[in-house]
Amino acid sequence: MDFNYPWHLYLMAIMYVFAGIMHFIRPKVYMRIMPKYLPFPRFLVFLSGVFEILLGIALCLPETKNVAIYGIIAMLSVFLLVHFYMLKGEKESAGIPKWILVLRIPLQFLLMYWAYVYLPL
Which stretches in the chain have pLDDT values below 50? Predict the structure, then answer.
């Protein structure tokens, strides 16, 4: 493992690995916010967890860092579906206040930018 990256890249990697693990520890939390129009919600919750873990690990490896960054940006783009779905109504919001749900949308774009800044110029 190459520890020559900035500490905040490793923080991002840990964040995605932790988030991915949570998909397996607390799948019901993620099932509640899964859009009803998507098929196989349980499978998708686990699949997204696997991707978060793999991308977090790949972020730390020089051979896969750039691919992981593009993967993270793509994954966060797909996750926007969930964020917009949660704005649909009270049941879809899973009890989260609307102002928090609205703030999560620009947060997704900030997370995408955070990943993007690690790409070589």
Answer: 2
